[in-house]
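Thread title: Can someone regenerate the structure for this chain?

I was given the following input by a collaborator and told the matching structure tokens would be attached. They weren't. Posting the sequence so someone can regenerate them.
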Amino acid sequence: MEHTALSQSIWMATTEPRTFAPLTDNASVDVVVVGAGVAGLTTAYLLGREGKSVVVVDAGPILSGETERTTAHLASAMDDRFVELEAIHGQEGARLAAESHAAAIALIERIVREEGIDCSFERVTGYLFAPAGGSRHLLEDELAAAKRAGLTDTAMLDRVPLTTFNTGPALRFPNQAQIHPLRYLSSLADVVVRNGGRIFGHTHVDHVEGGERAHVRTANGHVIHARAVVVATNSPINDRVVIHTKQAAYRSYVVGFRIPKGSVPTALYWDTDEPYHYVRLAPDTDGEHDVLIVGGEDHRTGQADDAAVRYRRLETWARERFTTGEVAFRWSGQVQEPVDCLGFIGRNPMDRDNVFVATGDSGQGMTHGTLAGLILTDLIIGRENAWEKLYDPSRSSGVRDLGEFVKDGVTMALQYAKWLTPGDADNETQILRGTGAVIRQGAHKIAVYCDEEGRLHECSAVCPHLGGIVSWNQGEKSWDCPVHGSRFDCFGKVITGPAKDDLDPVQAGTQVSSGAKR
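Best answer:
Regenerated them for you:
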């Protein structure tokens, strides 16, 4: 899919961009937070309320990255289902998971009320239903597990109250919520600054150090000393291996339809398909329409290049079930799926005690990120937290399915085998304009992007994190690493960790002498 007006999210289209100047000097604070998404800003907000001096830095504009690509479901009905959580973490673990995500929603609601934030926060009902031909038994088992987890007001319905299609049996989860994420977080950033915090955009961190002289160093050579460091970059940039063996990066796709206001009841909708679909409503800016936001079609990052096909599948799925109008938005985002279903929030494994991470959103980034603020603030202040052990990054993660775990390991090994394979194209002349491909030059793999004018832009195809061979993503015009999910723009500039560095340059700006193909 080409980059057009459709390839932005509704949140980007309806929010004024926020700009914060880059860091231009050294600094010293109580806590430095790397990453200005929901986890980073919530942590900074709560620490500021505790009287701590805080600096937040982000490699790009704040509220960019994955935060602007969320669909902003606020749910205590867990994405990975209570049956799975109970099997891995026990009944008490499932209960704590439900309790913690409910507390995250309550915190967002309280912040919205106390700080007077206009972000369309709304309590709504969530509905979970099976796909056509799906099993009622799965819903019955989930209902029992949800009640054991403390969601006692969960109930089985004969169908979701929709007139456009019959879902069949469904679970009703009251007291879920939704929000305009960027309006909320933009205002939260203002409050952080008003409370004495400092925020710097376009400030790339290339080194994190814990211990007595804890600090982060930026690519421009500036140093921020702190008593504690929080890395909230979706995928940790300060960890080479440990966390990345416990989670995998997935791309998820979203289509937004402009529909008549009120034609679909406002609620959260999920099915149990594989991969599952997730749906909600958001008000359009014209006051006469809603936007029906439909997501799904997930796949491992870097292991598929068929975004246009996945968008079409989502569109077909939605049109068969809902009142839909024109497609107004399309976008994709990246989620981190932990092997045991729950995020990693706390002290970074095999690191100094004052280095903290927040990652593993498992498709629930808004609540996981808010929960990270609650847990990390308590850990930094020195208070006990009822959920810290459940989300401890050093925990021994359980495995949902041994066969699936082995399959993932084999898949990972196959990505390194790409070192030995031929390229996607035999040479540069086979690369269409506006596309990219990996080619082999002797022992080297080269990532080649051919721009619309036919100029070639070449860089190493080797991810600087742990040496995976990147793959071309036509939907985002990016190079994606299939090993741990690092992503780079078409010119090789890093846009998503865990890689901290760009792809190594090889040769840029070469005109295709024989003429690149259209």
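The CA atoms of residues 248 and 408 lie 9 Å apart.
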